[in-house]
Amino acid sequence: MPQCPPGSFSYTVRPGDNFWTLAWRFGTTPQAIARANPGVNSWSLRIGQTLCIPGWSPWVTPPQGRCPQGWEPYRIQPGDTLGNIAWERQTTVANLLRVNPVNPNNLRIGQIICVPAR
């Protein structure tokens, strides 16, 4: 398994993955993924192969896995959007994105983000 540089996370290739689909899924670019994985050909990925994806893992809270003071972890539920979470927590989507480096169009059920504490 490669040691991923700071500001990236490891990802295990699944059927149908290529740099374009991964970039869309994780809110980055195919070029950034290629730079993080020198010598890897996007079109000949192997299932089970480990790649480094630039950005923060979508399954972990922000850097260092901790929420800032005054914020708490929240697990994404079916039907959640950043808009309804922001409304429920009396904040804005922009404020949620400031704390959570996530792709707002690709939230995953079970994903952990930080929200203002109640």
UniProtKB/TrEMBL annotation:
Enumerate the InterPro entries for this protein: LysM (IPR018392), LysM_dom_sf (IPR036779)
| PROSITE patterns recorded | LYSM (PS51782)
Any Pfam family from its record, for instance, is LysM
Q: Where is the signal peptide?
A: none
Superkingdom, according to UniProt?
A: Bacteria
Q: Which GO terms describe its molecular function?
A: lytic endotransglycosylase activity
Residue ranges constituting the LysM domain according to the UniProt record? 9-53, 72-115
- Gene3D superfamilies attached here? LysM domain (3.10.350.10)
Q: Which PANTHER family match?
A: LYSM DOMAIN-CONTAINING GPI-ANCHORED PROTEIN 2, MEMBRANE-BOUND LYTIC MUREIN TRANSGLYCOSYLASE D
Its name, as the record gives it, is Peptidoglycan-binding protein
- Organism equals Symbiobacterium thermophilum
